[in-house]
Task: inverse folding
């Protein structure tokens, strides 16, 4: 029987907030924000409407010792009790990861997403050589987050959006960390 290697996630500090692993106490805020159609439609994986139990299942996946994706919540509180967004790195092969993020609409256009992406890149917790990101073409603000953080545009593709129930055109970006 093979042994499961437990993956630990660091807490990443920035000026104004921390990136910390998801906890069960985040269920209420995650449900509130993920239930917002504006948030869900800008992601590939959040359904809208959010089904009962989806948040709890998400938290369980985030805490699984054998997960392939590390998710951090963006927490501006002093005591680690708030959540205004989330950011994730999905492990890929060849020392690569894919980044994804969302911010609660009340904090859009505040620079928080760019700051969170920059902090995660600087920490490089998965010891990546390359990070990819893709955004829906009707979400140019997310594209600016990536370009603000030094990502280079590499082309167009499509991704399925669960909330939209459709395949949506995307822009793809890459950042080398060597």
Result:
């Amino acid at each position: 029987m093979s042994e499961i290697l437990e993956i630990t996630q660091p807490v990443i500090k920035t000026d104004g907030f921390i990136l910390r692993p998801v906890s069960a106490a985040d269920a209420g805020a995650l449900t509130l924000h993920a239930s917002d159609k504006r948030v869900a439609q800008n992601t590939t994986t959040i359904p809208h409407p959010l089904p009962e139990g989806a948040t709890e299942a998400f938290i369980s996946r985030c805490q699984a010792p054998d997960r392939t994706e590390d998710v951090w919540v963006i927490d501006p509180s002093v005591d680690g009790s708030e959540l205004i967004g989330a950011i994730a790195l999905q492990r890929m092969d060849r020392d690569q990861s894919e980044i994804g993020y969302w911010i609660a609409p009340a904090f859009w256009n505040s620079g928080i997403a760019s700051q969170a992406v920059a902090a995660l890149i600087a920490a490089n917790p998965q010891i990546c050589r390359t990070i990819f990101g893709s955004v829906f073409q009707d979400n140019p603000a997310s594209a600016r987050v990536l370009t603000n953080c030094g990502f280079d545009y590499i082309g167009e593709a499509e991704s399925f959006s669960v909330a939209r129930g459709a395949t949506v055109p995307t822009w793809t970006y890459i950042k080398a960390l060597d």
User: Anything to note?
Assistant: The first strand starts at residue 12 and ends at 13.
